[in-house]
Design goal:
heterodimer, A: about 260 residues, alpha+beta, 3-stranded antiparallel beta sheet, extended, B: about 180 residues, mainly alpha, Rna Polymerase Sigma Factor, Chain: A, Arc Repressor Mutant, subunit A, 2 domains, about 75% helix, globular
Protein backbone atom coordinates (compact mmCIF):
# COMPACT_ATOMS: atom_id res chain seq x y z
CA UNK A 1 0.00 0.00 0.00
CA UNK A 2 1.43 3.40 -0.87
CA UNK A 3 1.92 6.09 1.75
CA UNK A 4 -1.02 8.21 0.63
CA UNK A 5 -3.48 5.34 0.79
CA UNK A 6 -2.09 4.33 4.17
CA UNK A 7 -2.61 7.88 5.48
CA UNK A 8 -6.12 8.13 4.04
CA UNK A 9 -7.15 4.79 5.48
CA UNK A 10 -5.74 5.67 8.86
CA UNK A 11 -7.54 9.03 8.91
CA UNK A 12 -10.84 7.45 7.87
CA UNK A 13 -10.66 4.75 10.51
CA UNK A 14 -9.57 7.07 13.34
CA UNK A 15 -11.55 6.61 16.58
CA UNK A 16 -14.57 8.79 17.16
CA UNK A 17 -15.11 10.51 20.50
CA UNK A 18 -18.28 9.15 22.05
CA UNK A 19 -20.92 11.63 23.16
CA UNK A 20 -21.03 11.79 26.96
CA UNK A 21 -23.96 10.42 28.92
CA UNK A 22 -26.52 13.06 29.61
CA UNK A 23 -25.75 15.22 26.57
CA UNK A 24 -28.76 13.97 24.63
CA UNK A 25 -31.04 14.69 27.60
CA UNK A 26 -29.60 18.19 27.90
CA UNK A 27 -30.21 18.84 24.20
CA UNK A 28 -33.71 17.40 24.37
CA UNK A 29 -34.51 19.64 27.32
CA UNK A 30 -33.55 22.61 25.15
CA UNK A 31 -35.98 21.42 22.49
CA UNK A 32 -38.76 21.01 25.06
CA UNK A 33 -38.12 24.38 26.68
CA UNK A 34 -37.32 26.40 23.59
CA UNK A 35 -39.17 27.66 20.64
CA UNK A 36 -38.65 26.60 17.05
CA UNK A 37 -39.10 29.49 14.68
CA UNK A 38 -41.78 28.90 12.13
CA UNK A 39 -41.25 30.03 8.61
CA UNK A 40 -42.81 33.44 8.12
CA UNK A 41 -43.66 34.59 4.65
CA UNK A 42 -42.17 37.79 3.42
CA UNK A 43 -45.58 39.42 3.20
CA UNK A 44 -46.20 38.75 6.87
CA UNK A 45 -42.76 40.05 7.74
CA UNK A 46 -43.52 43.29 5.99
CA UNK A 47 -46.94 43.67 7.52
CA UNK A 48 -46.20 42.35 10.97
CA UNK A 49 -45.20 45.49 12.89
CA UNK A 50 -47.75 47.68 11.17
CA UNK A 51 -50.83 45.63 11.84
CA UNK A 52 -51.48 44.59 8.24
CA UNK A 53 -51.19 48.16 6.98
CA UNK A 54 -48.63 49.11 4.42
CA UNK A 55 -46.43 51.92 5.61
CA UNK A 56 -44.90 54.36 3.17
CA UNK A 57 -41.55 53.82 4.81
CA UNK A 58 -41.68 50.11 4.08
CA UNK A 59 -42.69 50.62 0.48
CA UNK A 60 -39.88 53.14 0.05
CA UNK A 61 -37.50 50.71 1.68
CA UNK A 62 -38.65 47.99 -0.70
CA UNK A 63 -37.82 50.20 -3.62
CA UNK A 64 -34.45 50.88 -2.07
CA UNK A 65 -33.80 47.17 -1.78
CA UNK A 66 -34.42 46.79 -5.47
CA UNK A 67 -31.86 49.50 -6.15
CA UNK A 68 -29.46 47.92 -3.73
CA UNK A 69 -29.77 44.55 -5.40
CA UNK A 70 -29.30 45.98 -8.84
CA UNK A 71 -26.45 48.37 -8.09
CA UNK A 72 -23.87 45.87 -6.91
CA UNK A 73 -24.83 43.57 -9.76
CA UNK A 74 -24.40 46.34 -12.26
CA UNK A 75 -20.76 46.47 -11.30
CA UNK A 76 -20.39 42.77 -11.79
CA UNK A 77 -20.21 42.00 -8.12
CA UNK A 78 -22.83 39.28 -8.01
CA UNK A 79 -21.53 37.94 -4.72
CA UNK A 80 -21.96 41.19 -2.88
CA UNK A 81 -25.69 41.06 -3.38
CA UNK A 82 -25.82 38.67 -0.50
CA UNK A 83 -24.20 41.13 1.79
CA UNK A 84 -24.93 44.61 0.57
CA UNK A 85 -28.27 46.24 0.88
CA UNK A 86 -29.34 49.81 1.03
CA UNK A 87 -32.38 50.96 2.94
CA UNK A 88 -33.45 54.01 4.79
CA UNK A 89 -34.10 52.93 8.33
CA UNK A 90 -35.32 49.38 8.18
CA UNK A 91 -33.02 46.49 8.79
CA UNK A 92 -33.35 43.21 6.96
CA UNK A 93 -32.21 39.78 7.87
CA UNK A 94 -30.41 37.92 5.12
CA UNK A 95 -30.49 34.28 6.17
CA UNK A 96 -28.72 31.84 3.90
CA UNK A 97 -29.98 28.36 3.26
CA UNK A 98 -26.66 26.82 4.18
CA UNK A 99 -26.80 28.32 7.66
CA UNK A 100 -23.98 30.67 6.90
CA UNK A 101 -24.13 34.39 6.65
CA UNK A 102 -26.81 36.32 8.41
CA UNK A 103 -26.77 39.97 7.67
CA UNK A 104 -28.48 43.18 8.50
CA UNK A 105 -28.65 45.91 5.95
CA UNK A 106 -28.24 49.36 7.37
CA UNK A 107 -28.80 52.11 4.92
CA UNK A 108 -27.67 55.64 4.61
CA UNK A 109 -29.26 58.12 2.31
CA UNK A 110 -27.00 59.20 -0.45
CA UNK A 111 -24.22 57.04 0.81
CA UNK A 112 -22.94 53.59 0.18
CA UNK A 113 -25.09 50.77 1.45
CA UNK A 114 -23.55 48.93 4.32
CA UNK A 115 -23.94 45.21 4.79
CA UNK A 116 -23.31 43.80 8.20
CA UNK A 117 -22.89 40.07 8.24
CA UNK A 118 -22.24 37.45 10.80
CA UNK A 119 -21.65 33.74 10.65
CA UNK A 120 -23.70 33.42 13.80
CA UNK A 121 -27.30 32.41 13.11
CA UNK A 122 -28.24 34.08 16.41
CA UNK A 123 -26.98 37.42 15.21
CA UNK A 124 -29.46 39.89 16.65
CA UNK A 125 -30.59 43.37 15.87
CA UNK A 126 -28.62 44.52 18.91
CA UNK A 127 -25.48 42.99 17.40
CA UNK A 128 -26.29 44.78 14.16
CA UNK A 129 -26.59 48.09 16.02
CA UNK A 130 -23.20 47.56 17.64
CA UNK A 131 -21.73 46.73 14.26
CA UNK A 132 -23.39 49.83 12.82
CA UNK A 133 -21.67 51.95 15.49
CA UNK A 134 -18.38 50.41 14.47
CA UNK A 135 -19.13 51.26 10.85
CA UNK A 136 -19.82 54.85 11.89
CA UNK A 137 -16.45 55.00 13.59
CA UNK A 138 -14.81 53.47 10.53
CA UNK A 139 -16.50 56.15 8.40
CA UNK A 140 -15.05 58.83 10.63
CA UNK A 141 -11.59 57.26 10.52
CA UNK A 142 -11.82 56.96 6.76
CA UNK A 143 -12.81 60.60 6.37
CA UNK A 144 -9.94 61.62 8.66
CA UNK A 145 -7.54 59.41 6.72
CA UNK A 146 -6.69 57.53 9.90
CA UNK A 147 -6.14 54.05 8.52
CA UNK A 148 -3.43 51.94 6.93
CA UNK A 149 -3.88 51.08 3.27
CA UNK A 150 -2.18 48.15 1.61
CA UNK A 151 -2.36 47.58 -2.14
CA UNK A 152 -3.43 44.00 -2.88
CA UNK A 153 -3.70 43.66 -6.65
CA UNK A 154 -5.16 45.06 -9.83
CA UNK A 155 -8.00 43.24 -11.54
CA UNK A 156 -9.93 43.93 -14.72
CA UNK A 157 -13.70 43.71 -14.67
CA UNK A 158 -15.79 44.49 -17.74
CA UNK A 159 -12.91 46.41 -19.26
CA UNK A 160 -12.37 48.51 -16.16
CA UNK A 161 -9.12 48.24 -14.26
CA UNK A 162 -9.79 48.11 -10.55
CA UNK A 163 -7.15 48.51 -7.90
CA UNK A 164 -7.93 46.50 -4.79
CA UNK A 165 -6.70 47.58 -1.38
CA UNK A 166 -6.97 46.38 2.18
CA UNK A 167 -7.68 49.12 4.73
CA UNK A 168 -6.92 48.58 8.42
CA UNK A 169 -8.86 50.62 10.95
CA UNK A 170 -8.03 50.66 14.68
CA UNK A 171 -11.19 51.49 16.62
CA UNK A 172 -11.34 53.33 19.95
CA UNK A 173 -11.99 50.01 21.74
CA UNK A 174 -8.72 48.64 20.36
CA UNK A 175 -10.45 46.39 17.85
CA UNK A 176 -8.73 46.24 14.47
CA UNK A 177 -11.01 45.90 11.47
CA UNK A 178 -9.74 45.08 8.02
CA UNK A 179 -11.88 46.01 5.03
CA UNK A 180 -11.44 45.66 1.34
CA UNK A 181 -11.65 48.65 -0.96
CA UNK A 182 -11.57 48.89 -4.71
CA UNK A 183 -11.17 51.81 -7.06
CA UNK A 184 -11.48 51.61 -10.78
CA UNK A 185 -11.81 53.93 -13.68
CA UNK A 186 -12.85 53.21 -17.18
CA UNK A 187 -10.14 54.23 -19.65
CA UNK A 188 -12.61 56.39 -21.61
CA UNK A 189 -13.23 58.40 -18.42
CA UNK A 190 -9.59 59.31 -17.97
CA UNK A 191 -8.92 63.00 -18.37
CA UNK A 192 -12.60 63.97 -18.10
CA UNK A 193 -13.88 66.40 -15.51
CA UNK A 194 -16.35 65.22 -12.87
CA UNK A 195 -19.24 66.88 -14.79
CA UNK A 196 -18.16 65.29 -18.07
CA UNK A 197 -17.91 61.87 -16.46
CA UNK A 198 -21.42 62.25 -15.04
CA UNK A 199 -22.72 63.32 -18.43
CA UNK A 200 -21.10 60.34 -20.13
CA UNK A 201 -22.51 57.94 -17.53
CA UNK A 202 -25.95 59.50 -17.87
CA UNK A 203 -25.87 59.00 -21.65
CA UNK A 204 -24.92 55.36 -21.19
CA UNK A 205 -27.65 54.75 -18.66
CA UNK A 206 -30.21 56.49 -20.86
CA UNK A 207 -29.22 54.27 -23.78
CA UNK A 208 -29.38 51.18 -21.58
CA UNK A 209 -32.83 52.26 -20.45
CA UNK A 210 -33.98 52.56 -24.07
CA UNK A 211 -32.53 49.18 -24.97
CA UNK A 212 -34.21 47.63 -21.93
CA UNK A 213 -37.59 49.12 -22.84
CA UNK A 214 -37.18 47.84 -26.40
CA UNK A 215 -36.20 44.41 -25.11
CA UNK A 216 -32.89 44.66 -26.97
CA UNK A 217 -30.62 42.84 -24.57
CA UNK A 218 -29.50 39.32 -23.82
CA UNK A 219 -30.56 37.84 -20.50
CA UNK A 220 -28.58 35.07 -18.85
CA UNK A 221 -29.84 33.30 -15.77
CA UNK A 222 -27.17 33.30 -13.04
CA UNK A 223 -28.70 31.60 -10.03
CA UNK A 224 -31.47 31.56 -7.47
CA UNK A 225 -30.97 33.26 -4.14
CA UNK A 226 -33.18 33.78 -1.14
CA UNK A 227 -33.81 37.34 -0.07
CA UNK A 228 -35.75 37.76 3.15
CA UNK A 229 -37.44 34.41 2.70
CA UNK A 230 -38.34 34.94 -0.95
CA UNK A 231 -36.61 33.10 -3.75
CA UNK A 232 -35.30 35.41 -6.46
CA UNK A 233 -33.92 34.64 -9.88
CA UNK A 234 -30.75 36.59 -10.62
CA UNK A 235 -29.91 37.41 -14.21
CA UNK A 236 -27.15 39.12 -16.08
CA UNK A 237 -28.43 41.42 -18.82
CA UNK A 238 -26.02 42.26 -21.60
CA UNK A 239 -26.57 45.53 -23.53
CA UNK A 240 -24.65 46.45 -26.67
CA UNK A 241 -24.43 50.23 -26.93
CA UNK A 242 -24.29 52.19 -30.17
CA UNK A 243 -20.50 52.69 -29.73
CA UNK A 244 -20.07 48.90 -29.63
CA UNK A 245 -19.42 48.80 -25.93
CA UNK A 246 -21.06 45.90 -24.09
CA UNK A 247 -22.41 46.66 -20.64
CA UNK A 248 -23.48 43.87 -18.32
CA UNK A 249 -25.91 44.58 -15.54
CA UNK A 250 -27.52 42.47 -12.91
CA UNK A 251 -31.24 42.04 -12.55
CA UNK A 252 -33.39 40.14 -10.16
CA UNK A 253 -37.03 39.24 -9.75
CA UNK A 254 -38.97 37.02 -7.40
CA UNK A 255 -39.47 33.45 -8.54
CA UNK A 256 -43.06 32.89 -9.51
CA UNK A 257 -44.04 29.71 -7.76
CA UNK A 258 -46.26 28.70 -4.91
CA UNK A 259 -43.36 28.60 -2.41
CA UNK A 260 -43.23 32.36 -2.59
CA UNK A 261 -46.89 32.97 -2.04
CA UNK B 1 -32.97 8.09 5.28
CA UNK B 2 -33.07 11.24 3.16
CA UNK B 3 -36.85 11.07 2.96
CA UNK B 4 -37.08 10.55 6.70
CA UNK B 5 -34.91 13.63 7.32
CA UNK B 6 -36.95 15.69 4.85
CA UNK B 7 -40.15 14.61 6.53
CA UNK B 8 -38.78 15.51 9.97
CA UNK B 9 -37.65 18.90 8.65
CA UNK B 10 -41.12 19.59 7.25
CA UNK B 11 -42.62 18.77 10.66
CA UNK B 12 -40.09 20.99 12.43
CA UNK B 13 -41.09 23.85 10.14
CA UNK B 14 -44.51 23.50 11.75
CA UNK B 15 -42.77 23.77 15.15
CA UNK B 16 -43.18 20.05 15.91
CA UNK B 17 -40.91 19.42 18.89
CA UNK B 18 -41.14 15.62 18.64
CA UNK B 19 -39.66 15.82 15.16
CA UNK B 20 -36.87 18.07 16.46
CA UNK B 21 -36.15 15.51 19.15
CA UNK B 22 -35.97 12.73 16.54
CA UNK B 23 -33.61 14.74 14.37
CA UNK B 24 -31.49 15.51 17.40
CA UNK B 25 -31.03 11.78 18.12
CA UNK B 26 -29.79 11.24 14.56
CA UNK B 27 -27.19 14.00 14.52
CA UNK B 28 -26.07 14.96 18.02
CA UNK B 29 -23.31 12.34 18.29
CA UNK B 30 -21.77 13.35 14.94
CA UNK B 31 -21.81 17.03 15.81
CA UNK B 32 -20.37 16.35 19.24
CA UNK B 33 -17.52 14.24 17.84
CA UNK B 34 -16.71 16.86 15.22
CA UNK B 35 -16.47 19.62 17.81
CA UNK B 36 -14.82 17.42 20.43
CA UNK B 37 -11.94 16.56 18.15
CA UNK B 38 -11.48 20.20 17.24
CA UNK B 39 -11.68 21.93 20.59
CA UNK B 40 -9.96 19.37 22.76
CA UNK B 41 -12.13 19.84 25.83
CA UNK B 42 -15.13 17.73 26.71
CA UNK B 43 -16.95 20.54 28.50
CA UNK B 44 -16.38 23.04 25.71
CA UNK B 45 -17.49 20.45 23.16
CA UNK B 46 -20.72 19.84 25.09
CA UNK B 47 -21.40 23.58 25.31
CA UNK B 48 -20.64 24.14 21.64
CA UNK B 49 -22.85 21.21 20.62
CA UNK B 50 -25.64 22.71 22.69
CA UNK B 51 -25.10 26.13 21.12
CA UNK B 52 -25.11 24.57 17.65
CA UNK B 53 -28.50 22.97 18.16
CA UNK B 54 -29.96 26.04 19.86
CA UNK B 55 -28.92 28.10 16.85
CA UNK B 56 -30.34 25.49 14.51
CA UNK B 57 -33.73 25.51 16.22
CA UNK B 58 -33.88 29.28 16.49
CA UNK B 59 -33.02 29.75 12.83
CA UNK B 60 -34.80 26.74 11.43
CA UNK B 61 -37.01 29.02 9.37
CA UNK B 62 -33.87 29.93 7.39
CA UNK B 63 -33.39 26.35 6.26
CA UNK B 64 -35.16 26.13 2.92
CA UNK B 65 -34.07 22.57 2.19
CA UNK B 66 -31.92 23.28 -0.84
CA UNK B 67 -28.92 21.72 0.87
CA UNK B 68 -28.88 18.61 3.03
CA UNK B 69 -29.90 19.19 6.62
CA UNK B 70 -26.64 17.61 7.84
CA UNK B 71 -24.60 20.06 5.74
CA UNK B 72 -26.56 22.99 7.13
CA UNK B 73 -26.07 21.70 10.67
CA UNK B 74 -22.35 21.12 10.19
CA UNK B 75 -22.07 24.63 8.86
CA UNK B 76 -23.65 26.04 12.01
CA UNK B 77 -21.34 23.82 14.10
CA UNK B 78 -18.35 25.00 12.09
CA UNK B 79 -19.28 28.66 12.56
CA UNK B 80 -19.99 28.13 16.24
CA UNK B 81 -16.57 26.54 16.65
CA UNK B 82 -14.84 29.37 14.77
CA UNK B 83 -16.54 31.98 16.96
CA UNK B 84 -15.38 30.06 20.02
CA UNK B 85 -11.87 29.72 18.59
CA UNK B 86 -11.62 33.45 18.02
CA UNK B 87 -12.59 34.11 21.62
CA UNK B 88 -10.40 31.35 23.03
CA UNK B 89 -7.41 31.41 20.71
CA UNK B 90 -4.94 31.38 23.60
CA UNK B 91 -6.65 28.47 25.31
CA UNK B 92 -6.33 26.11 22.38
CA UNK B 93 -2.57 26.20 21.99
CA UNK B 94 -2.09 22.97 23.86
CA UNK B 95 -4.99 20.59 23.41
CA UNK B 96 -5.29 17.76 25.88
CA UNK B 97 -6.03 14.57 23.98
CA UNK B 98 -7.46 12.50 26.81
CA UNK B 99 -10.35 11.26 24.70
CA UNK B 100 -7.97 9.73 22.23
CA UNK B 101 -6.15 7.79 24.93
CA UNK B 102 -9.40 6.78 26.63
CA UNK B 103 -10.86 5.73 23.32
CA UNK B 104 -7.84 3.59 22.44
CA UNK B 105 -7.75 2.04 25.92
CA UNK B 106 -11.42 1.12 25.86
CA UNK B 107 -11.66 0.06 22.26
CA UNK B 108 -8.40 -0.85 20.51
CA UNK B 109 -10.15 -1.74 17.22
CA UNK B 110 -10.26 -0.84 14.32
CA UNK B 111 -6.47 -0.89 14.67
CA UNK B 112 -5.22 -4.42 14.29
CA UNK B 113 -1.76 -3.73 15.62
CA UNK B 114 0.28 -1.26 17.60
CA UNK B 115 1.93 0.21 14.50
CA UNK B 116 -1.43 1.16 12.97
CA UNK B 117 -2.57 2.68 16.24
CA UNK B 118 0.62 4.69 16.52
CA UNK B 119 0.28 5.87 12.93
CA UNK B 120 -3.27 7.06 13.57
CA UNK B 121 -2.12 8.92 16.68
CA UNK B 122 0.84 10.53 14.90
CA UNK B 123 -1.48 11.64 12.11
CA UNK B 124 -3.99 13.01 14.58
CA UNK B 125 -1.25 15.06 16.21
CA UNK B 126 0.05 16.23 12.83
CA UNK B 127 -3.46 17.25 11.71
CA UNK B 128 -3.84 19.24 14.90
CA UNK B 129 -0.82 21.32 13.91
CA UNK B 130 -2.17 22.21 10.47
CA UNK B 131 -3.51 25.67 9.86
CA UNK B 132 -7.25 26.01 10.49
CA UNK B 133 -8.37 25.80 6.83
CA UNK B 134 -6.50 22.57 6.21
CA UNK B 135 -7.42 21.11 9.59
CA UNK B 136 -11.10 21.68 8.82
CA UNK B 137 -11.03 19.77 5.53
CA UNK B 138 -9.40 16.79 7.22
CA UNK B 139 -11.89 16.80 10.06
CA UNK B 140 -14.93 17.13 7.83
CA UNK B 141 -13.87 14.91 4.96
CA UNK B 142 -11.88 12.18 6.66
CA UNK B 143 -12.91 12.15 10.33
CA UNK B 144 -16.59 13.00 9.79
CA UNK B 145 -16.90 11.25 6.44
CA UNK B 146 -18.45 14.15 4.50
CA UNK B 147 -18.07 14.12 0.74
CA UNK B 148 -15.87 16.75 -0.91
CA UNK B 149 -18.99 18.58 -2.10
CA UNK B 150 -20.52 18.57 1.39
CA UNK B 151 -17.22 19.71 2.91
CA UNK B 152 -17.09 22.57 0.42
CA UNK B 153 -20.63 23.61 1.32
CA UNK B 154 -19.90 23.55 5.03
CA UNK B 155 -16.78 25.66 4.57
CA UNK B 156 -18.46 27.85 1.95
CA UNK B 157 -15.66 27.32 -0.55
CA UNK B 158 -15.44 25.75 -4.01
CA UNK B 159 -14.98 21.99 -4.30
CA UNK B 160 -11.71 22.70 -6.14
CA UNK B 161 -10.50 24.54 -3.04
CA UNK B 162 -11.27 21.52 -0.87
CA UNK B 163 -9.43 19.23 -3.31
CA UNK B 164 -6.45 21.59 -3.34
CA UNK B 165 -6.34 21.74 0.45
CA UNK B 166 -6.57 17.96 0.69
CA UNK B 167 -3.64 17.60 -1.71
CA UNK B 168 -1.64 20.07 0.37
CA UNK B 169 -2.53 18.21 3.56
CA UNK B 170 -1.45 14.93 2.03
CA UNK B 171 1.92 16.41 1.05
CA UNK B 172 2.47 17.72 4.58
CA UNK B 173 1.46 14.48 6.24
CA UNK B 174 3.56 12.37 3.87
CA UNK B 175 6.62 14.54 4.46
CA UNK B 176 6.08 14.38 8.18
CA UNK B 177 5.81 10.61 8.18
CA UNK B 178 8.91 10.22 6.04
CA UNK B 179 10.91 12.48 8.35
CA UNK B 180 9.69 10.66 11.45
CA UNK B 181 10.44 7.25 9.96
CA UNK B 182 13.96 8.38 9.11
CA UNK B 183 14.45 9.60 12.66
CA UNK B 184 13.31 6.23 13.99
Amino acid sequence: MNTQKKIEQSLKSAPKPAAPDGLLNRLQEDVAAGEIKKRVTVIRRWFAPTGERISLRRVTAAAAIAIAVLLPLSYGATKTVKRIIKTFEAKFVYPQDDGGVHGYGVGRMGGVGVGIGSSDPNFTEEDAQKAEQEFDEIDELRKAGKYERTFIKEVEKNGVKIRLYEDRFTLSNGKVITMGAGYGRNSEMLGLSEAERKELLKKQFDEIDELRKAGKFERTFIKEIEIDGVMHNLYEDSFTLSNGKVIKMGAGEPVKNEDNQ
Amino acid sequence: MDNQIKSLCRRIKRADKDAASELLKIYYADIYSYIRRLCGSRHDAEDLTQQTFLKAWSSFDCFAGRSKFSTWLYRIAHNTFLDWLRKNAAGTQSRPDQWWQECIDQNPGPFSNVAERQLAQRLYEAVDLLDEDKRQVVHLHYYQGLSIRETAKVLNVATSTVKYRLREVMKILKDKLIVEEKEL
